[in-house]
Amino acid sequence: MRMHSRSGGWMKWALVVMVLVASTALVSSTQSPFTPQDKAYYADEATANFVRPGLVFKIVSHEIGTDGTVKVRFKMTDPKGVPLEREGINTPGTVSTSFVLSMIPNESKWQQPYTTRLKTSTYAPTAGKQARQASSDTGGTYAKVADGEYVYTSGLKLPTGYAKTATHTIMVYGSRNLSEFGMSTNYATDIYNFVPDGTPVKKVREVFKSASCNKCHDNLRFHGGSRVGVESCVICHVPQYTTGGQIVSNLNPETDNTIDMTVMIHKIHMGSQLPSVTGGKPYQIIGFGNAISDFSYVNMPSGTNNCQWCHEKGNEQAAQKDNWLTEPSRAACGACHDKVNFQTGQGHVNLPQPSDNQCASCHIPQGEIDFDASIKGAHVVEQESALVRGVIAKFVNIENTKPGQKPTITFSLTDKSGKAMDINELIPGAGRGRIGFTLAALTGGDYGKGISTATTAGYVQDAPTATTGFTGTPGLYKYTIATAIPADAKGTWVMQIEGRSDEKVLAGTLKERIVEVNLPNQVRYFSVDGSTVAPRRTVANTTTCNNCHANLALHGFNRNVVESCVICHNPAMTDAARRPADKMPAESISMASMVHRIHTGEEQPNGYILYGRGGAADFSKAVFPPPAITAKCTMCHVAGTEAVPAKGTASVTDPRGWLTPAGPTTAACLACHASKEAASHALANTTTLGESCAACHGPNAEFSVARVHAQ
Fold it and tell me: What is the average pLDDT across 50-64?
């Protein structure tokens, strides 16, 4: 009997399966290299061991012919090192590859790719306009030399007299398509540096490491996902240069905006605060298929002046990690300060700057005082300035905590150095700061009941405007809350201290300013009836939020830890007290609903606008930093807390939602899955007995939250 398949591959497939399962199993009953966020985690053991998802490229060596032809020997394997083939006949999934050839001239610090393309705009307003850009090689050929090992011969030839003593770079990038196996496409990139004359590599372009970007971006990759890591971005996104007699402008011809990494990345992250954008000109890049990427709405969660957040946090291993301090330039600085005219001096203290030669003379890394012209001084995060004292308030004791009593708080009050502070410094009208106390009931594990005012549900706030009521001396005070615990109160309650110091710095100088410095919130749980204290569940923590937000501080810097946020942003609260009558109905500000909707703002069918003391806050353009996606719940959630059913017990008041009240699981899920159809599905699966979400979406169910969000 004859067995037939493509290239006689049936027998080879069978052999591969037996070898993989028998000797190098990727998945076993006791261990898996995948996490619940990976689609492969849910594949049956035999399929996972056969497919072995993942892709790794490794450039092994190079050869440059006498005519300038470059040959690249490279390997492609799965994560365990088992060879893969390009065609996907004898190993699962076709693998595509592309190559970029580049060099760093001895007299330069930027990459200059040899491989380029001429892009012609088809975007109607600029149709026909052209720009030469860095690109990948074309016209090359492949030769298989071993299992999973190939030689790529470039279609491009290096020019006669190319710099043999300069660092050269070969980048391979590509993908492995596993869609036919119900799995995702895998992407990989490898970068190989060498000097053609055989001497060691001494010069690279490495201002950033991907670890810094991935605090927010999760796994930085763009252009469909195939260019992985910022190390690959800087090979093509470079300033204008000349190669082969042609000027490579690296412009986006549709907009005339440069795609040089230094300028483009600063502008993207400055986004809505670019002077040009606030002046009415959007900042856009037109990409593949004439897709418009409009960065005019970007708000940097860590703050646009917080240069250290990108340049230092997670970037400690970069070869040129200090370039931002030691090599200031008109391109880098003018990217954010894009209304400065360096030729005329307008916006630059009327001082023309025809070149970068003198930038470092005035803009030294760090000066003697914050807010000066030094790079760190000019971009100091105000709250972290050495000129501010800051304020720390901590609970020492809470007395009178039984039903019918008004709690008395004993708290310490110091500055950041530990020096005692006077309460007058935090009282509006007496000092320039603020201190406040919040009392709330934690009923059934949720806030929202037990105590309320005309504008609050489930909590009361006490914000003294005079020192009356405080006893003690600087460093240690007592204060009695104006509201009594209700006579029928039971279980666990909470007290919170919040506030800020408003400090004048550089008084009498041209740089005089008031700096608002947040008081780190303190939360203290206590029992009002002698029962065991049961703190609120932790769904997300402040540390996780601050991976992107650096210092999550809202409402005038008064609230700055998640444990504080959830007290007021409880299931019963809406923005009704602040929303204008003609903008009703109100919007839920319950934490799960609100945070999910904020982070998926652009996907909300009717936008997402909240009203507070400062007016409207429009999150309708908010997106997660790509390629991070909101489907990866673990970027924010403490492990497992995204699972269904939600641990809350209280229904959510959601006047603008499809359902109100909505069960706790329904409210959380519909905040992202905001369609009418999703709401109908939730309603159909809710009865007088409650939500049945866990039947299909529970942790071990076929459509568990982790499984349906896996990538």
Answer: 96
Distance between CA atoms of 688 and 270, rounded to whole angstroms? 50
Retrieve residue 692's tokens. 């049945």
In whole angstroms, what is the distance from residue 82 CA to residue 25 CA?
11
Per-residue pLDDT band at 36 (split at 50, 70, 90): confident
In-domain check, residue 445: yes
Supply the pLDDT for residue 2: 33
* pTM over cut 0.85: yes
Question: CA 362 to CA 340: how far, in whole Å?
Answer: 16
- The arrangement of strands across the sheet holding 112-113 comes to 112-113, 95-104, 167-176, 186-194
585 and 482 in one domain?
A: no
- Whether residues 591 and 602 fall in one domain: yes
Could you tell me if residue 250 is left (phi over 0), alpha (psi between -120 and 50 degrees) or otherwise beta? left
Question: By three-state DSSP, how is residue 271 classified?
Answer: helix
336-364 residues labelled b (16+ CB within 10 A) or e (exposed): bbbebebeeeeebeeeebeeeeebeeebb
In tens, the pLDDT along 455-495 reads 999 999 999 999 889 999 999 999 999 999 999 999 999 99
DSSP 428: B
**Which among 514, 539, 570 is the end of a domain?**
570
677-659-620 Cα angle (round to 5): 75
Task: Express each pLDDT in 640-662 by its tens digit.
Answer: 999 999 988 899 999 999 999 99
Higher pLDDT, residue 6 or 443: 443
Contact 92, 145 (CB under 8 A): no
Asked whether residue 561 falls in the same domain as residue 585, the answer is no
Q: Give the count of domains, the chain.
A: 3
pLDDT of residue 21: 39
Range of the domain at 512: 383-570
* Confidence at 26, pLDDT banded by 50, 70, 90: low
Residues 563 and 594 in one domain: no
Rounded distance between C-alpha atoms, residue 679 and residue 563, angstroms: 29
Please tell me whether residues 508 and 621 are part of one structural domain. Answer: no
CA distance 474 to 581: 45
User: Last residue of some domain: 570, 604, 634?
Assistant: 570
Is the residue at 247 inside a domain? no
Q: How far apart (Å, rounded) are the C-alpha atoms in residues 356 and 330?
A: 6
What are the structure tokens assigned to 466, written together?
A: 């005079």
> pLDDT averaged over the chain?
92
Contact between 630 and 624 (Cβ < 8 Å)? yes
Domain membership of residue 286 (yes or no) is no
Tell me the residue ranges of DSSP E strands in 322-399.
392-399
Predicted pLDDT at 32: 59
Residue 226 placed within a domain: no
C-alpha 304/C-alpha 323 separation (Å) is: 18
pLDDT-derived band of residue 431, with 50, 70 and 90 as boundaries?
Answer: low
Claim to verify: residue 391 and residue 529 sit in the same structural domain:
yes
Tokens 């019963």 sit on residue: 572
Residues 550 and 444 reside in one and the same domain: yes
